[in-house]
Design a protein that fits this description.
The structure is a homotetramer. In chain A, 41% of the residues lie in helices and 15% in strands. Chain A has 14 helices and 10 strands. Chain A has a 7-stranded mixed sheet with strand order 1-7-6-5-4-2-3, sandwiched between helices. A 3-stranded antiparallel sheet of chain A has the order 8-10-9, with helices on one face. The longest helix of chain A is centred in the C-terminal third of the chain and has 20 residues. At the A-C interface, α10 of A face α10 of C. Chains A, B, C, D: Belongs to the threonine aldolase family.
């Protein structure tokens, strides 16, 4: 019973069906009707003109976004525990040609205007210092915390005041929106976000993520960069089809709600053991090595996180019985 | 009736079936059984120990290979009409951090030891000059020509003598091997090739290519680079599944043979119009603008190539009746 | 008697004196009065507002200019024999993060609007192709030819029409202006040049070149890039002092005139042997290996260029008697 | 009376004399006798075979060293307050093509095996994580502390055990050696250092630093990289001449001793105000804004460092009377 991550879950049947439906001859690259329809479809979803480019991985989405917002000689403020800092093998540095990540603090991997200002206020505007050009936040965060529209707007206000771009890593954007109950617009461009990595793979897709630019002109250069990075699939329609299937009938929200609900069950069982409030589909809880071993002995797989902490992640398809069994086992610790 | 390219053809049913079969929970990234089995499977195919990494595009395969063979301050000899020079949006320069492509000549986009030596002999070993570190050839070439094992071996000998790595862009490797009737080994490592971009997408896959290193140690660094380029899929099993399906029962060769046979039909009809011998699945023929228009009027789509030339490409699924109709139409020009 | 190159000539006594005069405590980097005065001094020379940054080498000047005019995913049109292509060890690719050099033709290493258009017209605007973003010309060229203001303006017009930046490698700019007898403005910004590498080292300085931007805003980012490239000297006043000494009393033009005059003497002696008209301080002439050996036997050092060609370069300090002796020796061949 | 930094001090008369003596025609680049003699001269100084390359700035020396020790996808452990992290405008990322700096802690900007291990032990060997490939330490440090041979050897032992390269930023190496009274070997290669940035500019030179490789083969690639970075001066003899003048008769040590002695005078006056022990030529002391203002009112210039701290730096030429006056003024605070 795997609670390692949502990143290896099976593909949702509707996505598989969409792939099958796309399996006819069509124009190459992103010239097919599905790919060409993404801008309009996402513009409708976000209630503003956006440009939406498919890419195969979240790392690719994040790093193309960062490259659009930060020059090679610039820097990007992110949380010390951000995925772009710790889990992308230096891809941000590769795509930006060596921009520097400035590490800020905040509980639950959430930045605040104050923690960002702490970092950038310490950097004089001087050629000897790498200058900040962008901020990157993750929603839901690497610890399953969710930024509210107001929280994002506060950061967006700081970004605008300092002339910085604002990127949102939305590998679990669906989980955040499902929790917030707000419009996708409220927590992105209305709050000052310039570019969103809109994740689908962790939420039921096979290999398609979207990079959404709320200033569509930013996409112009990125289309060249996407090709230059070897990311322009010749059969792009199979990526677009995945995205469209996820958006149809709000499958993306339904899947996220399912995963979030399962995590809530585990959170309820964990009670005082919780390290962070559970606001999405990740549950971090305190467990001694013996307790972790006891859970594993019952057949549950998961990550050991920091010392004395374990991470449990639910997915769109986490079986109800397995979740119930795990909740029970946690209660019995 | 599309003869634009093989790069947008539908996905073969056996590949679709393999994707469906892979649609269960498994380990993330390349930790799944399918991905883990690639080295052994490809080692068996090539009759030597190889390391095989899946990537989603041919550009990614080519450029990771080049980065493994050439440092940022080095250069790569390729044909003036090579895909890496003209059709990858600068991806070789991105992945290698700015290596230079040295352009050599040769009929049908085929290099020879002499045409390569012309280029490298003109470069003194001097810090002012970018030094060649690798050679890249394409088999089958961008004009549908095929290098024989002996021809590759002659280039491989030069590469070894000069201390250069040798990369083969095999976007249409299957078509070449189908024509040659040789073992995959004969035209690669036995002939001095260090790294092969083994293409499947043009031949019936959806989004999976293989980067095969005949010196497995070269893969060690490349695994980091693959992640750093945003190419490490979290659900890698769906890439490995495509490759394995293509290899099962020699589907890759069957598909290539089918495409080649269709191209041969067109070649027979084209006769003296042919610009290059047809040795794979691409047919370049002389046609005036009026003649090209006449073909289009009959419903055939294709690329205008150089002035007075058109390019017709067949795929694994090119319908027999459409090919016959096109052959007839060519004959009537 | 050395006629290898002007790049190793001694430093002019007035430059040495200026270094001695600068040898007092002053503000670091480019905060000293000499460095701070460069913009005004060069603006006066060019009759328009410019930004002028010292750098230690011509390669650094060229490559910072190219990086300002071309993004990493773009390309730069230059002559096939341009210094940036052949003699800078890949520095353009390093500074631009992998931009591609497109090689155009032209006699005497001179580009024309037609030869440039031949290159760029062949590149469709398509993400698969690296797009041209800039043109780089050398004045005087690598073969000692000089672009007139009209010739530059014709290229400048093309650059503007196509939205391309225009860079002039002026390693021997002084020699060109000395020959043309025009204002520095006429052959640069008035003709559409955006950035000039204004060379002093080959003309009597020790280690200072200037990068002059005719759109001063381009310098803003370049100041960061200059530091990032390790080129921001802490004792920058010794670079500024060299430049100012070269500009005082038109020393730069006097030195260039002297070198040009010496080359003209050699050209007169060479007569029909000349490969290119001699318009600056380089003389290319046809000489058999035996003839070259005969000159060397008399104590003259120089480069063998292409087969059957030798290159002779005069400098600001070429001794009159040595030049006369060489002219005589050429006449006796 | 300037105590801002040693980086803008005048050039020592013996260096100026050496420049004048070098002012004759010689071979270009590093082909002159002075440049060619550096390897032997430095090998003698260090008592082992080294390769020594001149470069014009400390940033260039540091970053070429880092590029030799760390691949683009790797990382370098340095102190949180290291010059390469805070004061080089992202040059390490530029030269290494995007390697990541890992920030470690330690009093006085000194790393210890333990503080380094804290950083690298937290990084699993996994393609998702940038892997450490090198360690960089500064001696004397950014706070004027000195690593002893034993301290360096302890770090060198860790580096060797973990397969990491070890770089020493020796912008003030002379000051450290002057304090230690050891051989240059004892604190470098004998202690496991692979590459040293041997600084001269802060110590009386004009524009020459040395990059010393204790594994000479590392220099082979670096020679290409130096050219590629636009750092290969055509008149390199003027750089070599500076270095040789600094080494003659131990001028480098005499100058450093002079600067250190002046700093010791200030340290004695500062007493309990000292933030760090004064072991080289930098003095950090606690001073309220009013106290700092009082010093400035007496004509002393210096940096405000952290809140309530000021930095005073002495140079080879700090006038005895000014230092005495400053010491007195500090005593009177």
């Amino acid at each position: 019973m795997r609670f390692f991550s949502d990143n290896a879950a099976p593909v949702h049947p509707q996505v598989m069906a969409a792939l099958a439906a796309a399996n006819t001859l069509d124009t190459a690259y992103d010239g097919d009707a599905r790919s060409q329809g993404l801008d309009a479809r996402l513009s409708a979803l976000f209630g503003t003109d956006v440009a939406a480019l498919w890419v195969p991985t979240g790392t690719a989405a994040n790093c193309l976004a960062l490259a659009a917002l930060c020059p090679p000689h610039g820097g990007i403020v992110c949380h010390r525990d951000a995925h772009i800092q710790n889990d992308e093998g230096g891809a941000p540095e590769f795509y930006t040609h060596g921009a520097k990540l400035f590490l800020a603090d905040g509980k639950g991997a959430k930045l605040t205007p104050a923690s960002i200002a702490d970092v950038i206020d310490a950097i004089p505007d001087d050629v000897h210092r790498v200058q900040p050009h962008a901020i990157s936040i993750t929603n839901a965060t690497e610890y399953g915390r969710v930024y509210t529209p107001d929280e994002v707007a506060a950061i967006g206000g700081l970004a605008k005041a300092r002339g910085l771009g604002l990127h949102m890593d939305g590998a679990r954007f669906a989980n955040a929106v499902a929790t917030l109950g707000c419009t996708p617009a409220a927590v992105t461009w209305e709050a000052g976000v310039d570019a969103l990595s809109f994740g689908f793979v962790k939420n039921g897709a096979m290999s398609a993520e979207l990079l959404v630019f709320f200033t569509p002109a930013l996409a112009d250069v990125t289309r060249y960069r996407r090709k230059r990075a070897g990311l322009l699939f010749s059969k792009g329609r199979y990526l677009a089809a995945q995205v469209l299937a996820m958006l149809d009938d709000d499958l993306w929200l339904d899947n996220a709600r399912a995963a979030n609900a399962r995590a809530a069950e585990l959170a309820a069982a964990a009670g005082a053991r919780l390290v962070h409030p559970v606001e999405a589909n990740e549950v971090f809880l305190r467990a001694t090595p013996d307790e972790a071993a006891a859970l594993r002995a019952k057949g549950f797989d998961f990550y050991d996180w920091a010392a004395g902490e374990i991470r449990l992640v639910t997915a769109w398809d986490s079986p109800a019985d397995q979740v119930a069994a795990l909740a029970q086992a946690i209660g019995q610790l």
